[in-house]
Amino acid sequence: MNVPSITHIRALRNEPMTYREGTITSEKGEGGFIIDDVIEAETAFSCIVRPETGDRIVYLKSANAVFITDILKRDQVCVADIQIKGVDELSIKSKKLNLVAGEQLNLKSLKTIDITAFLGVVSLTGMNLVTTVKESIIQNAASHITSVKNYTLNAKNLLRTHGKHHIMTADEEIRMDGERINMG
Known about the structure:
Strand content: 15-25%
Helix content: under 10%
Distance between the termini: 89 Å
Largest sheet: 5 strands, mixed, barrel
Radius of gyration: 30 Å
Mean pLDDT: 87
Strand order of the largest sheet: 1-2-3-5-4
CATH architecture of the domain at 6-73: Beta Barrel
């Protein structure tokens, strides 16, 4: 570790606001970083990719503070965290927005996820659709049309279907089996 001299520290304090290049050598507390083993810095509000140790960066040094403004190079890019310090809500507005992942896309929330297309279509396409719900599924629609090769529906207690008109048809056979069948 390079220990700065008193002369070097005094020179840094008296310099005007300047941009410099350096390397993140360690992290310091919540959101703080050490540059070149000497300079304490925090990320600028506009630096949304979180720096990591080893990153080659650009920083702005003023008389009162040092801010990391850009990440120039990262030796090994495994994960890039996007975070904006002090922001509770992030809005991205555009006529069109594409999120593309080569292998997996996760949307997670502790409370609510809303997907809305007020005047259009919400489309889900995949090899399989797996839905797990802890309590209730509530669906409201003018029409519900399902077309499948085979359909199995199991209910542990009560299975009820009701309508003003109820039609069951089969090309070959309708079978009803139970301990007791009441009709009428």
